[in-house]
Amino acid sequence: MDTHDPDQKDSGWRGSREGWLTAARDAFVEAGLDAVKIQPLAARLNLSRTSFYWFFKDRGALLDALLDDWEATNTASLITAAEAYAETIGEAVLNLIGIFLDDGPFASGLDLAVRGWAHQSEAVAARVNAADAARLDAIRRMFGRFGFAEGEADVRARTVYLVQIGYISMQVREDMATRMARIPDYVKTFSGLPASDRELRRFHALHGFQPAA
């Protein structure tokens, strides 16, 4: 007797929805949109092609899920950081910078890949534009919480965000020591105020960085 429950489609010998999505994300970041195809992903996962259809209606549904994953990973993590508790604007800016470090939740490679995809699709470009607007608004509101006037908050938000997106778009590679050495000046440039020694020590500890003696 077949005891299979058709609603239980989340795992097993067919893999899992998360497994297919992770494989799609990895392929997308590594090789672009053309790499996100069912058969190559099945081979990557060592699964049958038909198992894909337990989790996604078709490739279009997978691509939609990939965009949802990008927003949940990157836009959500940025907004969360911008809204996180901070005693000073310096601490708030450090909260934001931290998500872009290698150990942070913001997936830079995924962001770069989605921006490349946006050049091929008006619908994806619209989602990227909406995400950029939401991210900028969150940073703008962060500065507003610390008393910055609307116009200044807007320009400072753009300065923070566009620098970070520039790092991603130019695929800048810095070792942790170099990046950490620049962060105090970035904080001062972004906010007009220096981060305190206590804030920097806490930031270093949070990211497992030990400054040279």
Give a quick precis of the structure.
The protein is mainly α and 213 residues long. It has 9 helices and no strands. It folds into 2 domains: 12-56, Arc Repressor Mutant, subunit A, CATH 1.10.10; 70-206.
Provide an overview of this structure.
The structure is a single chain. The chain is 65% helix and 0% strand. It is mostly helical and 213 residues long. It folds into two domains: 12-56, Arc Repressor Mutant, subunit A, CATH 1.10.10; 70-206. The longest helix is centred in the middle third of the chain and has 25 residues, at 59-83. It is elongated, with a radius of gyration of 20 Å.
Order of helices and strands: HHHHHHHHH
Q: Can you count the helices?
A: 9
Distance between the termini: 70 Å
Largest sheet: none
Share in helix: 55-70%
On the 0 to 100 scale, the average pLDDT is: 93
Principal-axes geometry comes out as elongated
Rg (CA only): 20 Å
Note the topology:
Blueprint: H1 17-31, H2 38-45, H3 59-83, H4 89-98, H5 108-118, H6 122-145, H7 150-169, H8 176-191, H9 197-206
Question: Which properties best describe this structure?
Answer:
213 residues, mainly alpha, Arc Repressor Mutant, subunit A, 0% strand, disordered N terminus
